[in-house]
Write a structure and sequence with these properties.
By secondary structure, the protein is mainly β. It folds into two domains: 187 residues, Adenovirus Type 2 Hexon, domain 4 (Distorted Sandwich), CATH 2.70.9; 156 residues, Sandwich (Jelly Rolls), CATH 2.60.120. The protein is built from three helices and 22 strands. The strands form five sheets. Strands 2, 5, 6, 9, 12, 14, 19, 20 and 22 form a nine-stranded mixed sheet that branches. Strands 1, 3, 7, 8 and 11 form a five-stranded antiparallel sheet that branches. It has a four-stranded antiparallel sheet with strand order 13-21-15-16, with no helix packed on it. The longest helix has 12 residues. The N and C termini lie far apart (61 Å).
């Protein structure tokens, strides 16, 4: 009786298979570094708390952190009145720093999480520009005496163009630091706050694997920074004046303005025809309504769907899939390829180059009528600080 033989080159069952994800040498970084994700930690905090758990290393280059928050609460005998900035205002301060202490994202929760995600294009495009459209997002049940919960997911992004802006994540001694301060109970409800509350944070990291070929991501060491700062001076009701923005020093990708009255409420009392001046020279002189239209064209923020007038009374009807938050407006510099902002697909050709001596101002002649004056204009500015010369064109190609 003859014995069966194994054909030359055959694979014996149980033998480990060869690694098949390697690409031939050559080409861009992203060809050799697939996307990955790993868990960082799960933690719990309440109101007026502080969270700064250490992050852990990952086998590659970190492009951002996903923060998912679950809030559990029990309403009192009267249903709470939820604040307009909820749920992002659960965090009174968000600080994302690199291993050397450079502030990458800094600001109150609403600005650092909601506004940066919405306006930057680093989180998503189209409907998912706004994280409130995420399938993760749930609504708070304000029914009296109800046991309720709300979940929301936000992204803390480093990557501002494909593979550009990432941070080395494999060295456990050189990892980013995320610090979260949680707010007092009033950040959730302006009236009838819940009787009890707890929260759980789940942090994951998105990264590119260590490449299978000897190549680095483009411009390693370049960072995209979002820092929230108040402008000066404050704005009296119907004042005719200039307001100075904080000094910058990088390549500006998006300028987000936020106007709040003396009670902290976001208001839309911008000038009917605002001006943006760079070193005293008007860069933009436009109707505020046209500025909103520009924003809708480039990002979709504020654009209406099926916006038609009814036959009786001429009432407009329709939906705004990605709403512009009241009191905020953005000047977009990520339209190098088109009048459309494509998120991580941009060449950087029209980023606004600034230095520490550059003075940006917003002029209003006059500003709007402010019931609770004075108002404070704040800016959260997306600026790229390159490690050398800014890479323009498509760095991943």
């Amino acid at each position: 009786m003859s014995q069966a033989t194994v054909a030359p080159g055959g694979t014996v069952a149980g033998r480990p298979q060869p690694q098949t994800t390697a690409e031939p040498a050559g080409g861009p970084f992203i060809r050799h570094a697939p996307d990955g994700r790993r868990a960082q930690y799960v933690a719990s905090t309440g109101f007026s708390g502080f969270l700064s758990n250490p992050t852990v290393s990952m086998p590659g280059y970190c492009k951002g952190y996903r923060l998912q928050t679950l809030i559990n609460a029990t309403n009192g005998g009267t249903g709470p009145t939820i604040t307009p900035d909820f749920p992002d205002a659960f965090y009174s301060l968000v600080q994302m720093k690199d291993a050397f202490g450079t502030q990458l994202i800094t600001g109150p929760g609403y600005a650092a999480l909601k506004e940066v995600n919405l306006y930057s294009g680093q989180f998503g495009t189209d409907l998912m520009r706004d994280p409130i459209n995420s399938p993760v997002q749930t609504a708070y049940n304000t029914t009296l005496s109800a046991v309720t919960s709300v979940t929301f997911s936000r992204y803390l992004a480093f990557e501002f163009a494909k593979a550009y802006g990432v941070i080395s994540g494999a060295n456990a001694a050189l990892l980013p630091v995320l610090q979260l301060n949680t707010a007092a109970i009033g950040a959730l409800a302006s009236a009838n706050p819940p009787g009890s509350l707890s929260a759980q944070q789940t942090l994951d990291s998105d990264f590119y694997w260590l490449p299978s070929a000897p190549t680095d991501p483009p411009g390693l060491g370049t960072t995209a920074q979002w820092v929230y700062q108040p402008c000066n001076p404050t704005v009296p009701s119907a004042a005719s004046q200039l307001v100075q923005l904080p000094r910058l020093g990088g390549y500006l990708t998006m300028l987000v303005l936020e106007l709040r009255d003396s009670t902290g409420a976001r208001i839309d009392q911008y000038p009917s025809r605002p001006k943006i001046l760079v070193d005293g020279v008007p860069l933009i002189d436009t109707l505020f309504t046209t500025w909103q239209e520009d924003l809708a064209i480039s990002t979709g923020i504020g654009a209406s769907a099926a916006n038609v007038a009814s036959a009786a009374g001429g009432t407009q009807s329709g939906t705004v899939p990605v709403a512009r938050p009241a009191g905020t407006i953005g000047m977009n510099r990520k339209t190098s390829l088109s009048q459309r902002d494509f998120g991580l697909l941009d060449t950087g050709e029209i980023f606004l180059n600034t230095n520490p001596g550059t003075q940006l101002e917003v002029a209003g002649y006059p500003w709007g009528t402010i019931s609770n004056a004075p108002a404070t204009l704040s800016a959260i500015v997306g600026q790229v600080v390159p490690s050398g010369t800014l890479i323009q064109g498509l760095p991943e190609v």
